[in-house]
Fold:
Amino acid sequence: MLDRATAPQFGTIKDVSLIEPTIHHLDNGIPVFSVNTGTQEVTKVELVFDAGTATASRTLVASTTTKLLTSGTSNKTAAEIAESVDFFGAYLQAETSHDDCSLNLFTLSKYLPQTLPILAEVYTDVVFSEKEITTHLSQSQQQMLVNREKVSYLGAKAFAAAMFGKHHPYGRSASVADYDSITRNELVGFYQNHVKGGVKHIIVAGKLSKNTIAQLNDAFGNTKQKEPSPSSFDIGPNTPTTVHAEKADAVQNSIKIGRVLFNRKHPDFIGLQVLTTVLGGYFGSRLMTNIREDKGYTYGIGSGMVSMKNSGYLSISTEVGADVCQAAVDEIFKEIGLLRKEHIPIGELELVRNYMLGSILKSVDGPFAIADKWKTYLRYEMGINSHHNLIHQIQTITPERLRDLANTYLQRDDMAVVTAGKAMQD
Amino acid sequence: MGRIDFERFTLDNGLRVIVHKDTSTPLACLNIMYDVGSRDEDPDRTGFAHLFEHLMFGGSANIPSYDAPLQMASGSNNAFTSTDITNYYITLPAENLETAFWLESDRMLNLAFTDKSLEVQRNVVIEEFRQRYLNQPYGDAWLLMRPLAFKEHPYNWATIGKEEKHIEEATMADVRAFFNTHYKPKNAVMVVAGNVEVVAIKELSEKWFAPIIKGEKPKRNLKPEPKQTEPRRLQVTRPVPLDAIYISFHMCGKTDDDYPAWDLLSDILGRGDSSRLYQKLVKEKRLFTAIGVFTMGERDPSLFSIAGHISQDASLEEAEAAIWEEIDHLKTELVAESELEKVKNQLNANNEFAEMELLNRAIGLAYHEINGDAETINTEMEEYMKVTPEDLKQLVNASVTKDNSSTLIYKRETNA
Structure:
């Protein structure tokens, strides 16, 4: 008789191998990190620039500049660029984060010779036509009006401002009026100072040919590069606060709770990643079990650590019925309190270790996933040892250490509590 | 394009099993697709297939917790429900695959429903309803469009259900009946993909799934949608910042010969920054801030839809007229060969990117098998390649017409 009550034997993950990129240098010195693996005939080329939103003097400058990188060169209109990229089934995408921006080309490997020159042209020769600028700003402004109808969006804005300060590079966000005051000069200035000639490195991944590096050299090896001028700014002390962003017609409220901490280079970061996974980092987590599976207050709740170049923070986030908003906040703090008070049972910690290792294994499967992992490590100038350390710490961290971390970093009085939606009744 | 190789076998109880081997990954996926979706629901008790998907995680005959043992074996899982199917998937290290067989076979064998889990999941699904459909600007668009476009066929309601009340009223008896009818080996396709051996999968399938009793494949007898003969229109007023327009046309089902042409038509109008509607209506005329075109890809005859947010500087009338102007071009002028080649290239590349993910290949195989034959995952592109400019012109003239259209308008509240 088949025993269905007992779980089959399973193995625990001893190690997760992460392919290290091969490093090349183009003629002008641009470092290229190459991840040559995978089964599909595809290539991703990512140009990374020290040109994040925190680098710019005010909001919208970096994101608008990045977005307009594909808006036309002296030879090609925006429509012609789109046409030439789309014809090969490729994608040309610009991304902006707090700390950097990147220009990505996704293409079938066989079309790299046709699509790479478009990427090169786009990056070195943007003209920033007034018409493209006004069209983009007007449409983004109207998109923002739509976003403002979402409690998650209102909550995220208020949360960043509550933690870092509303004028801080990590805490500020655009207002509707900001779109009216952006000038072409600001965008051109940011492009000239931070993007053009500011390639920090190139990450290339996929099933590459032996010519790929030479092709990259042809495209980018003779562009003039300048010395990087990374931004620096202070991070103020953590300032606990309670904020409510009103949206009277909301049927659900957004809740965001967290505090300023530090980035992934800090020795306690990984421990806090484990701790926030126990709290709310997976389907069986304490917050999901309590607030979704026991109380039915929400469709989902999560917690985790967020790392940025100059700081980092802890974040707990959910959307709950407006009528149970206060009850949900209370339950969140109850769960945090338990982490401070009691050791995490060995069985639960074992499960979280195994789950996290499984997630990491999945997160480095395939060339683009590996490239993303290295993009993160390169941002912090971290190498393969950081990956080994991550695995080792997940495997060995103790319940005692986790409780200590909870007592050091998860005090209720240190938290920013942000809600967005209907005002809460007492 | 890379072929997706696989082997197929069927257990005595009717469970179809597909094995796709990929030794480049340390992972394995186990995907089970049940041939049941919201189209199989009673019109007075909608949202049930999806609510049931939630209940599938509430413990089974011999295993009180579904998630914990899987997480212990370094796995992760999720599920989704559509109008046509309900799909469950697990990803885990290949060496731990048996854990997935154990979990999935036990919940196909029998569920252990409790009143508590039914009550909680009703609440969770209602919060999902609110989060995704009610508490988002334009979130109720498909709750409005489906009943406008469908008068008889059960695509008339969205998978989440017609209203919260239907979910609130679900009883334990409903839940049991639903399980007993639809969650049978004969009504499912299992795909195992990744670093696995076919022989081992055969053994594991026999061991864990063969003992499950056969049951009958439920008969499906859905009302066909009568041909639409005149334009339909619904206008609603909402606290949204921009007016919006949704126009849907009846089209064929996913496995119909015409489907590739519809799919390519949607790409010509709406895929990427070089597409017609984006270039003309968003960039040149600035009538819309965003516009999209898509096919639902449902199994039965379904919808081809155009949806856009209208710029504050434009009027609804000129925006709507401009969409029709683009449609009229397609009725009189052939699409250039190079434009058609472009969207075929886009589709090819897109498949190649999507197939990087093992799970996408597993779900794709299951989906094609449920729709008739897994092998069509490898041959469907040939059908796309055959589509000609004449095919598109004919299609637009025949079906992208006012009489076949349902138009949904969101007007912003003037004081919003």
User: Anything to note?
Assistant: The first strand of chain A starts at residue 22 and ends at 25.
